[in-house]
Amino acid sequence: DLHPHESPMSATESTHTSMQVSTFRIEDELFGIPTLLVEELFRPLPITRVPGADYRIDGVVNIRGTTAVVINMRACLGREPLAAGHGEMILLESNAGLVVEAKELGLRVGDEPLLLLVDENSHIYHLPVEANYPPPAHISKAFVQGVARSGDTYITMISIPKLIDDLQPQAVEA
């Protein structure tokens, strides 16, 4: 019998045929990121505002002595904010903490700890790679990398590197 985290395929075989996706909800829509990028899930923590920060950055939180930036996914997607203290948080791995499999797949995140503030954490889906489709035409956000399908469920896939790039101030050439 297999344990829940074991697969009948080796890591190298499974990297080309399937992926695990951690999903979260914003309103009634389901979004996903590669599970290998997720370190931990949290209930909302007290957020300290950062003056002058991008409107999509809610502030910072202290997680066991480490400061993490809070990215508000509702704001990134152009939605109205939730009331303070509502929603759930996803702590992403930092690049230094990524497991070997994630690095071999070319996955990357930020150098500093990041938290995504979402309406609700949902499920983990094990999806075949061929279940991925290009982003829908009505979504113009650069960090939306496509749509994955599991049966009748559609998951809008978020690119964490593109999300981070989108939040960086753009350099102005003189």
How does the SSE layout of this entry go?
Elements: H1 11-17, E1 18-26, E2 29-34, E3 38-42, E4 57-63, E5 66-72, H2 73-76, E6 88-92, H3 100-104, E7 114-118, E8 120-128, E9 132-133, E10 144-150, E11 153-158, H4 160-167
Parallel strand pairs: 2-11, 5-7
Antiparallel strand pairs: 1-2, 1-8, 3-6, 4-5, 6-7, 9-10, 10-11
Order of helices and strands: HEEEEEHEHEEEEEH
Overall morphology: globular
Counting helices, strands and paired strands, the structural category is mainly beta
Major sheet details: 6 strands, mixed
Uncertain residue ranges: 1-15
List the strand order in the largest sheet.
8-1-2-11-10-9
Task: Write a structural description.
With 174 residues, the chain is mainly beta. The protein contains four helices and eleven strands; from the N terminus they run αβββββαβαβββββα. The protein has a six-stranded mixed sheet. It has a five-stranded mixed sheet with strand order 3-6-7-5-4. It is globular. The termini are far apart. The relative contact order is 0.21.
